[in-house]
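Spend some time on this chain, tokens included, and walk me through the fold:

. . .
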Amino acid sequence: MLNPRELIRSGLAGSALTSPGTPPLGAAPHLTRLVLPLRTVRDYSGGMENPDRSATMITVSDRSAEGTREDLSGPLGTRLLEEAGWEVEGVVVPDDRDAIAGAILAAVDAGVALVVTTGGTGLGPRDVTPEATGPLLDRPIPGIAERLRAVVADRLPASTLSRGVAGLRGRTLVVNLAGSPGAVQDGMPVILSVAAHVADQVRGGDHT
């Protein structure tokens, strides 16, 4: 089996993705810019005015990757990040460990400061996002994942079943969100409250 980096180089990890200009079934035309093959993830390592505000939003969904279901969570997350001043690329991958890991590694290698995934954190047989993400983390940050579950637990008790993880891969903060617009809407403020501080700390900034 190819490892995630080989998947990226070969383009296999993006083979199930919708190509730019071809909207998924039922998707609004203005959303197609968010559905990009993995190999087109922008390189932020030296070409962005503020790489500390660069992000990749990864939707994990078999049906969205196939184009049979409109992706609502990823575009919402992208919009919330952009409104907070982040420059964002969007990617859709199937519920496959190699594809998920490959997308994360491609974003990290491109130099982004933040990777947020949405989807695949539950208990279903195809929910493998935590399993794909966890082994990639150099420094887990369990407090972020715990806070994400806590913020919606009173309103939606089932949120405690989300197995999402968070942590650092190199200088990149990686965070899993559940695969619903509500989870993204509630969770993104938690991520935004710490993401800039994390980006500053990993680059040697002040801890105050």
Q: What stands out?
A: The chain has one domain: 4-37+48-64+75-85+98-124+138-202. The two ends are 45 Å apart (CA to CA). The chain has seven helices and six strands. The domain at 4-37+48-64+75-85+98-124+138-202 is CATH 3.40.980.10 (Molybdenum Cofactor Biosythetic Enzyme; Chain A).
